[in-house]
Structures are given as structure tokens and as C-alpha cells.
Amino acid sequence: MHKKPDAPARVLIVDDDPGTIRLLGKIIEDFGDIFFATSGAEALAMVRERQPDLMLLDAEMPDMTGFEVCETIKRDPIFADLPILFVSAHTDMESETKALELGAVDFISKPPSPPVVRARVRTHLNLKLRTDQLHRLASVDGLTGIANRRSFDTTLEEEWRRTCRAKTPLCLLLIDVDHFKRYNDHYGHQAGDQCLRTIAAALAGCLHRPGDLLARYGGEEFAAVLPACSLDDAAKLAEKMRQAVAALHLPHAASETGAEVSISLGAATLSLGCQTKGSDYPTWSGACPDSQDCHGGIAALIAAADAGLYRAKAAGRNRVVL
Ligand code: GH3
Ligand code: MG
Ligand code: MG
Ligand code: MG
Ligand code: MG
To answer: Which of 45, 57, 96, 153 has its CA 20 to 30 A from that of 191?
Structure first.
């Protein structure tokens, strides 16, 4: 989980002793947004709710030990990257080793020395900031600011597996800007880039469910991954996107389709029983691909959406085809 680049750092202090919490809170008060939990259960809830950048964790607490809290977080794929710094009354090598082996980044014995706590907290927050930056660079498209192709591939594969387990429908939209080569030729590449940014923002504005992903699929093509969505609803969303781009009224004097920028969209679904549906494309009905045919299944879903897109182009562009 990653927050906005310039937001203040968030630090969670966990200790069953209010005096220690007050002391640690005072030592690092100027590092950002500091919040507290006094039990393991409360700490885990807070990690989910507030997604801290760093956790200062006591080892001995009545409900759950810090070691158990650490182990639970490191097992959760969503929160495993959270850096955990133990601040513990234990001074023995075994406890320190145990904490580090469970995945903690650091271990400080009580009573904590304020300058040491500050220095280590600063180091771990800086590292977290850099890691978040790298994650962003690896997953966000530099031109448009939406998810890149790598995120699309990863998300589609995750959602495909989830769909096969849960048997809920998964939809895919492929979106292509009409006559964009002519746009570049007429207005220049820089204007073309700006046009792609504007279109990406308009498309993103159409998505509201947290699980939906809009990505730049390549060049002037975008894709939307829509988990637990019926083909009907996907078609409605596709039409909403088409209209949102039309409503931008971006001039395109060289287009054959009209005098303004437009998009064509293809939609397809993987529905119950792992079958893809999309017009014209033969229904894919392989065995439910828990893992074996995952890639074949994903390829079939993309091909089905692509077939719709191809027909939308052939039928005159600026339209949605299932
Ligand atoms: P169609 O309606 O059939 O999709 O025609 P088209 O011209 O949009 O399709 P084609 O695939 O022939 O051309 C796509 C164009 O998109 C060519 C390429 O220069 C342009 N393009 C791809 N990526 C970028 C980009 O990042 N910036 C700009 N400015 N143009 C891009
Ligand atoms: Mg304690
Ligand atoms: Mg294209
Ligand atoms: Mg093309
Ligand atoms: Mg195009």
C-alpha cells in the first residue's frame, strides 16, 4: 500500500503501556502523522485502516505479543512491506534475533534513547519513501499517470484467478483512439501526447468501483479490468466512456470519423464456468484454469475484447461492440 508522494509520513506506535506511547510519541512528534494502538488486535485493525509507513512495536502485550503481530503482518501480501521497528523491554540476543527473523527491520531496547529512536525512524521512513517511489515508477504510466502495462498484466492475472475461484464474471474493455496517427500528423506529437493525457483522465473519471483498473495498454490504446461485473454493465460503462471522450470536444480536423477525437471500444467477459463471451469470437470453454491454463484463458479474454474492438473499427469507429 502506498500513499501520495508528498503526504506526511504515518507512524503507528503500539504499546500496552500508555507512558511508553506518550514518551515515543513525544520523541518522534515532528516526523508526521503519529497514531497509537494499545493492543495487538487494535494494531492490526489500524494497519488496515490507516496504512502506516512505519510501525514501532512493543514485544510484550497481554492479548497478542509483538512477535505474533509482526508474523501476522508479514504473512499478509498487502501489508507485508510495512517496516516494523521493535521497541522492547527485552535486552537479550534471542528476542532481537527472533524479531529480525520474523521480518522486523530493526530492534531497540527500552529505555529508548531519543536520538537513537529519531535516527532509526528517519532512516526507515526515508527507505519507505524510496521504495514507494520505485513501486510507483514500476507501475504507473509516465505520460498519463494511470496504471501501466505491467500493472495491467499483473492485475488481470490476479483477477482471472479470483474469478475462477469465486465464479463471478470478469469483464475487459479495450479502448482505442480513432485515427490517432492522423491526429499526430496534423497537430504534432506533443499535442498528441496532451490528447492522450486528457483522454486518460476522462476515462479514469468514468470508473468509481475500487476494484476496477484503467491502464494504458500501449500507444493510443487503453484497457479497463472490471472484476465482478456483468457484460451488460461493462457495455454501459464502455458507452459512458465513449460519451465522456466525445464530451471533451477535442478538435480532430484530420479524422475521417468526425471533426472531433473519438474512441472505439471492445468488451468481453469471462463468466461462470470460465467461458469468454464476445461477439464473433468463438466461446472459449476450456477447463476452469486454476493455474494450468491461466495464460491461455487470459489470452482468450483479450482476444475476445480485441475482436469487438476490431468490429467497432470496421463498423465505422466511435462505438462499442461486445
Ligand atoms: P485507428 O482508428 O484504426 O485506430 O487508426 P490509428 O491511426 O489510431 O491507428 P494506428 O495504429 O495506425 O496509429 C496509432 C498511432 O498512435 C500511431 C502512433 O504514432 C500514435 N501513438 C502511439 N503512442 C503514442 C504516444 O505516446 N504519443 C503520441 N503522440 N502518439 C502515439
Ligand atoms: Mg508491553
Ligand atoms: Mg491502436
Ligand atoms: Mg493500430
Ligand atoms: Mg487508434
So the answer is: 153
